[in-house]
Specification:
alpha/beta; four-stranded antiparallel beta sheet; binds 5'-O-[hydroxy(phenylacetyl)phosphoryl]adenosine
């Protein structure tokens, strides 16, 4: 189903003309309004007037998480602060989050794109949308919420957690569309089983799952256990939040990028060069309609490839394959983005802790479990058990405060974590997804 037929089926030529017009306006605006972008463009020897065709996008410098960190919190905003009506944030690589802002028009665009996403999954007015994405600084909850209202569905802003209550509400309120991370969908299925709730006794028909990597196997499992159709939706805070790309229910094979708002590229993560259509590499997005926080060539670190063949649904937007990995070490634990460097940042602020640690991630049932093994100094290790326990609890609390996700801390004897002979193997991710 199409929400905005005119734009979602624009002939390629008209779409590219629109992209070029919007790209030129974006580059002019960034050059004029954001000193950091102006400086980067000057250093790269490119002026707004040099953008004459879509191919010229490749001459523009990339934007990275590091650029966002350097401009924390609002340095890359491109409008006077009075025009910002919403602020969200996601994980940065150290102690500070990555901050993004929206004007009133940005919120309106976001609602439109999430309306398209919901519509592509077959949701419509009259549906009861059970929105279990987290509400708060995370973009998932509120992003999806505005889209659900835009299509005229009744949205239940249930947010995450308290799964038994979620299931009761699903039954009592007649939820028809489920929005949450794919791992949480499996968790809901497990708890339903524990509660002896038959999937046929709830009215769910379709689920829109994203915010973390998942696989075709997981799709089959969710569909089977919940008796619904499962759709993959993609986005990231720096570019907008959810609503950057979405599968359609007709094809269920690759995600349409909303190309009238974002120009996608696939690059070689090592060299930064563009790759030919169909080859896998790192996704890069340029936002061509955002006002408060536009980004030029943002390096997502997510690995995907374009699917050049047209889709059954009639949309002319390119599809990208589901995300198959990352070109950095970011982990997603229960939907929360975690960088090993954030954990290191906490550890290094604690006295008695050595700079040797390892992060072990496993999936118990459908839940991610993270354990951090940390070496402590000789003095601390020979102290009483109580002191060690207290130290472990303190680290646990500090990590929880910074990341918003809990982990288990295991303090180990000095020199027991294997030393690296090259790149440190800090993360052991044993999850099978
Ligand atoms: O996770 C936005 C979102 C919310 C997307 C709800 C979909 C649904 P961030 O917290 O900034 O934003 O995390 C963005 O999550 O760079 C990917 O690594 C990962 N990610 C998001 N969607 C998918 C997906 C939201 N469908 C980061 N498949 C991205 C795999 C995904 N990974």
């Amino acid at each position: 189903m199409l929400w905005n037929e005119e734009f979602e089926t624009l002939p390629r030529e008209a779409l590219e003309a629109l992209q070029l017009k919007r790209l030129k306006a974006l580059v002019e605006k960034e050059y004029a309004a954001v000193p950091y972008y102006r400086q980067k463009m000057d250093e790269a020897g490119i002026k707004p007037a040099d953008i004459r065709s879509l191919k010229d996008i490749r001459r523009l410098p990339f934007t990275t998480k590091e650029d966002l960190r350097k401009n924390y919190p609002f340095g890359l905003f491109a409008v006077p602060f009075e025009r910002v009506v919403r602020i969200h944030a996601s994980s940065g690589t150290t102690g500070k989050p990555t901050v993004v802002g929206y004007t009133r028009r940005d919120i309106d665009t976001w609602a439109e794109l999430m309306a398209r996403t919901l519509c592509a999954a077959g949701a419509h007015q009259g549906d009861v949308v059970h929105n279990a994405y987290g509400y708060g600084l995370f973009t998932g909850g509120l992003g999806a919420h505005y889209g659900a209202e835009r299509i005229g569905a009744a949205v239940i802003p249930i947010s995450g957690g308290n799964t038994r209550r979620q299931i009761m509400i699903m039954q009592d309120f007649g939820s028809t569309v489920l929005l949450c991370t794919p791992s949480y969908a499996l968790n809901i299925a497990d708890v339903m089983k524990e509660m002896n709730v038959q999937p046929s006794s709830v009215k769910l028909r379709v689920g829109l799952f994203g915010a973390e990597p998942w696989s075709e196997n997981m799709r089959e499992e969710i569909e089977r256990k919940l008796g619904i159709k499962a759709i993959d939706i993609y986005g990231l805070s720096e570019v907008m939040g959810p609503g950057v790309a979405s599968e359609c229910i007709e094809g269920k094979n690759g995600l349409h990028v909303f190309e009238d708002h974002f120009i996608p590229e696939i690059i070689d993560p090592e060299t930064g060069e563009g790759l030919p259509p169909g080859e896998a590499g790192e996704l890069v997005f340029t936002t061509i309609t955002k006002e408060a926080f536009p980004v030029i060539r943002y390096r997502t670190r997510d690995i995907s490839r374009f699917i050049p063949q047209p889709c059954l649904c009639g949309r002319t937007f390119f599809r990208m394959q589901r995300i198959t990995g990352r070109s950095d070490d970011m982990l997603i634990i229960r939907g929360v983005n975690v960088f090993p460097s954030q954990i290191e940042h906490v550890l290094m602020s604690v006295e008695g802790v050595e700079p040797h640690y390892q992060i072990l991630v496993e999936r118990e049932g459908s839940l991610d479990v993270m354990e951090v093994r940390v070496e402590v100094s000789e003095d601390i290790f020979s102290d009483e058990v109580k002191i060690l326990e207290k130290l472990g609890k303190r680290i646990e609390r500090e990590i929880k405060d910074l990341l918003g996700v809990s982990c288990k801390i295991k303090l180990v004897e000095p020199k027991t974590i294997q030393r690296s002979e090259g790149k440190a193997m800090r993360v052991l991710d044993k999850r099978k997804i």
